[in-house]
Amino acid sequence: MDTKLKGDIAEIEVQLKALKLGWDVLIPLGDRLPYDLVIVINNKFIKIQVKSAWLSENKGVYLIDVRRTKTNRREMKRKKYSNEDFDFGIIFISDLNVFYVIPVNIFNSYAGAITLHEEVSKQRKPKSHEYREAWDLLEKYIAGW
């Protein structure tokens, strides 16, 4: 399965999850914007960037690239997102049907990739674990308006 198809599936999974939570979803035309969809909660708009994680089998972790990728016929350009590009990054792990809901400032604090450890050791949980299935962050975000 190619990366574009994986990304399309992740976007649909996020849309479905939002609808099941009773929220509305808006989908922009084309893919030129720095966000993939908008979730509407209590008439407040939240811009969402969706990423699909892949398994790094040799490391036993899931990874996503935190950079924006633009391609044309000749080259692929990667660039960091800004904190104004979207409000939350939502990462989907297809193998496990798991979501990570990460505020943009945390998402952008990673240098090039986010590493997700699904096997949590008994000693301590990784930083990213607090964002696992953290859908309540979207409601808290709009409550702060």
Structure description:
It is globular and about 45 Å long. The chain contains three helices and ten strands; from the N terminus they run αβββββββββαβα. The strands form three sheets. Strands 1-2-3-8-9 form a five-stranded mixed β-sheet. It has a three-stranded antiparallel β-sheet with strand order 4-5-10, with no helix packed on it. A two-stranded antiparallel ribbon has the order 6-7. The protein is α+β, with helices and mostly antiparallel strands and 145 residues long. The chain has helices spanning 3-20, 104-107, 136-143, and strands at residues 24-26, 37-41, 44-52, 54-56, 61-65, 67-71, 76-80, 88-93, 98-103, 113-116. The chain has a single domain, classed as 3-Layer(aba) Sandwich (Trna Endonuclease, Chain: A, domain 1), CATH 3.40.1350.10. A hairpin with a 4-residue loop joins β8 and β9 (98-103). The model has no long low-confidence stretch (mean pLDDT 90).
Strand percentage lies at 35-45%
Helix content: 10-25%
Please identify the structural class as seen in this structure: alpha+beta
Shape summary: globular
CATH class membership: Alpha Beta
What do we call the CATH topology?
Answer: Trna Endonuclease, Chain: A, domain 1
In the predicted model, the low-confidence regions spanning at least 5 consecutive residues are none
Which architecture would the CATH scheme give at its second level?
Answer: 3-Layer(aba) Sandwich
**Topology, number of strands:** 10
Strand order of the largest sheet: 1-2-3-8-9
